[in-house]
Specification:
With 126 residues, the chain is α+β, with helices and mostly antiparallel strands. The chain is 24% helix and 21% strand.
C-alpha cells in the first residue's frame, strides 16, 4: 500500500536533481551522494533546479514507490541545512508544509512528548 507517515525518516538530496531520473538513477544518488541505503525504508526527497517539481523515493516491501509533484505556479521551499546532523533531514510535518506551500522560516514548533525520548530516559535510569 502507498503510505508516507510521521514514523518514517525523510532526507533531502542537497543538489539539484535531474527530474528525468527514475528509480535506478535516484537510487544511485542515494547511495553515492547521500551515503544511505535506498532499501532502508527511509524516504529520499529530490527537488528540481527550478524548485517547481519534487520526487520522493521510498522502498516498501517488494519494491520502490516514486511520488512526483509538479507545481503549475510557485516553488517549493528548501529547508535549512542542519549543521548538527550534517544533512537536510526533515520531519513529516515539515514535508507536509513544504508540499502545501507553507513557509517554514517563521514557524515555531512547540515541544511535544516523544516516546523515543521516554524510552531513552527509561533505559538510562534503569
Amino acid at each position: 500500500m502507498f503510505s508516507l507517515s510521521s514514523s518514517l525518516t525523510y532526507y533531502i538530496y542537497r543538489g539539484q536533481a535531474d527530474m528525468r531520473k527514475s528509480f535506478d538513477g535516484l537510487s544511485g544518488l542515494v547511495q553515492n551522494e547521500l551515503q544511505r541505503n535506498p532499501l532502508s525504508g527511509e524516504v529520499f526527497i529530490f527537488i528540481s533546479r527550478r524548485r517547481n517539481t519534487i520526487k520522493l523515493l521510498h522502498w516498501e516491501s517488494g519494491g520502490f514507490v516514486l511520488y512526483y509533484k509538479r507545481l503549475e505556479k510557485g516553488t517549493f521551499e528548501i529547508p535549512r541545512y542542519d549543521i548538527q546532523t550534517g544533512s537536510y533531514q526533515i520531519c513529516w510535518t515539515e514535508l507536509v508544509m513544504m508540499i502545501e506551500g507553507i513557509s517554514m522560516q517563521k514557524i515555531k514548533l512547540r515541544k511535544r512528548y516523544s516516546v523515543k525520548g521516554f524510552v531513552n530516559n527509561y533505559v538510562e535510569n534503569f
